[in-house]
Amino acid sequence: MQKCVAIWEKKHIKGIKKVGIIFGILFLTLFVVIIVLALNTPSAEEYCKNAEFVNLEEVYELHAQNVPKAEELYKDKYFKFTGEVQHIYKSYLQIQSDYISADVYFNSSYDDKAKALNVNDKVTYCGKIDFGMSIQVKNSIIVEE
């Protein structure tokens, strides 16, 4: 009887080891894929090199009239804007261009520059447009022009 239990335990231990090795290989492969993708993703600076200036009012008006068209033209794409800081919040700045403002979330490498801005400062920035309760510009950088 003990011999049967010993044989059964050896088979199951081998099976558990094989499953562990398979999961280890899968985890390592996934980790390598994530690293490769992260290294090959262009930076905000690279996206903004060729970004065009967009009028925030036009983005807002199109979104108010035709959400699918606005999302097709603008969502998750990088554009440049010029505006004036209206409010400073902990995680973002509200920057206004004429009558429309956007919630602007800066890239972590631009946090210090963004925190150095004051209300009523004029700023040119570039970022990826998103739509929420308001127009949001994410992963933004400050453009020196």
Summarize the structure.
This protein is an alpha+beta fold and 145 residues long. The chain has 5 helices and 5 strands; from the N terminus they run ααααβββαββ.
Give an overview of the whole structure.
With 145 residues, the chain is of the alpha+beta class. It has 5 helices and 5 strands; from the N terminus they run H-H-H-H-E-E-E-H-E-E. It has helices at 2-40, 44-49, 56-65, 67-74, 111-115, and strands at residues 78-88, 93-97, 100-106, 122-131, 135-142. Strands 1-2-3-5-4 form a 5-stranded mixed β-barrel. A hairpin with a 2-residue loop joins strand 2 and strand 3 (100-106). The mean pLDDT is 84.
Element layout with pairings:
Layout: H1 2-40, H2 44-49, H3 56-65, H4 67-74, E1 78-88, E2 93-97, E3 100-106, H5 111-115, E4 122-131, E5 135-142
Parallel strand pairs: 3-5
Antiparallel strand pairs: 1-2, 1-4, 2-3, 4-5
